[in-house]
Design goal:
Helices cover 73% and strands 0% of the residues. It is mainly alpha-helical.
Length: 109
């Protein structure tokens, strides 16, 4: 099982870094911060395919939820810093509180 994980991990890293080998794609990779895709891949990848899928789904769900919440906060505040800062503090405090479900309270593993 460890060998299969290492093969999957190395194949994923190699595929994500493939554009950097070609000069024509390297600028696109750097301009769009392609290294973040490698970082996200390494955070999500687990020893089992099922675990990786579940973690990926949780990460996608969390990202979409945070985008919607950020949009909501910015619309409520309408550029008013006196409203924006307390709202961000409250929302961040609520989201960072540890959950009873460990799947929802992890940061990187």
């Amino acid at each position: 099982q460890s060998f299969h994980f290492l093969v999957r991990l190395n194949a994923g890293v190699a595929l994500l870094l493939l554009p950097t080998l070609f000069q024509t794609y390297r600028e696109f990779f750097v301009q769009w911060h392609g290294a973040w895709s490698l970082f996200a891949f390494l955070l999500i990848e687990l020893r089992t395919v099922e675990g990786t899928m579940v973690r990926g789904i949780f990460r996608l769900t969390g990202t979409l939820f945070a985008c919607a919440l950020g949009f909501f906060v910015s619309e409520v505040a309408r550029g008013n810093a006196a409203v924006l800062i307390p709202l961000l503090v409250i929302v961040t405090w609520i989201l960072v509180l540890p959950s009873s479900n460990p799947q929802f309270s992890y940061v990187s593993g």
